[in-house]
Amino acid sequence: MATNWNICSVCDNLQITKYSEVWCSECDEGLCGECKDHHAVSNASNSHETVSITEYRKLPTKVLEIAQTYKLHNEKFELFCRKHDSPCCKKCVESHNDCKSLTDINELIKNVKTSNAFYEFEQTLLEVVENIKRLNTNQKENLTSLENKKRKIEAEIKQTRTNINIHLDKLQDGLLKELMTVEEKEKSKIQNLLTSLQNKEKGINELQENIASIKQHASELQTFWL
Ligand SMILES: [Zn+2]
Ligand SMILES: [Zn+2]
Ligand SMILES: [Zn+2]
Ligand SMILES: [Zn+2]
């Protein structure tokens, strides 16, 4: 990655340190305000497009690394080797002697920003963004519906519990009522029995009194005929 964005290369060559304001990709160097003006009117460079340093720094690292490879041989890339899938400068070409498919890189990169491939790439990215948005919405909807389902089941469990409670209460009431009825019935039976026993006791007592009085006051004959 280029490390000299901040320093104007032209001034640096003259041993002066000035901060650069713009970046020229053609020259692959930063330029201070003064050198920028010279660069803009000089015949050699007046067709170069420059970009402000702040904007240039925002480019992805990968793009900045591409700019740096220019510096390997201090030459511009002029050809592209399809066999090795790499751009070559005049000096690189020596190592591609056997390669037959060397193309003029300017032909290759001409209008690349307006090419179909670039457009399709942009469209693909748009589609991916759309897909991610859709997935995001779907998953959020799933979360909500999951929450709703959980709440519904929770309510059902509570309702079932209430129903069971009501049923058990009814069962208990019924059993207690039945128990009370049985008790009342048995109680009255026992009371009837007690009354009849009392009556019998009373009868026997009277009989005993009679016998005692007979024993005391009646004659043997009277007693015999009794
Ligand atoms: Zn300068
Ligand atoms: Zn330039
Ligand atoms: Zn080279
Ligand atoms: Zn090659």
Automatic annotation (TrEMBL):
<feature type="coiled-coil region">
    <location>
        <begin position="129"/>
        <end position="217"/>
    </location>
</feature>
<dbReference type="InterPro" id="IPR047153">
    <property type="entry name" value="TRIM45/56/19-like"/>
</dbReference>
<protein>
    <recommendedName>
        <fullName>B box-type domain-containing protein</fullName>
    </recommendedName>
</protein>
<dbReference type="GO" id="GO:0008270">
    <property type="term" value="F:zinc ion binding"/>
</dbReference>
<feature type="domain" description="B box-type">
    <location>
        <begin position="3"/>
        <end position="53"/>
    </location>
</feature>
<keyword id="KW-0479">Metal-binding</keyword>
<keyword id="KW-0862">Zinc</keyword>
<keyword id="KW-0175">Coiled coil</keyword>
<keyword id="KW-0863">Zinc-finger</keyword>
<dbReference type="InterPro" id="IPR000315">
    <property type="entry name" value="Znf_B-box"/>
</dbReference>
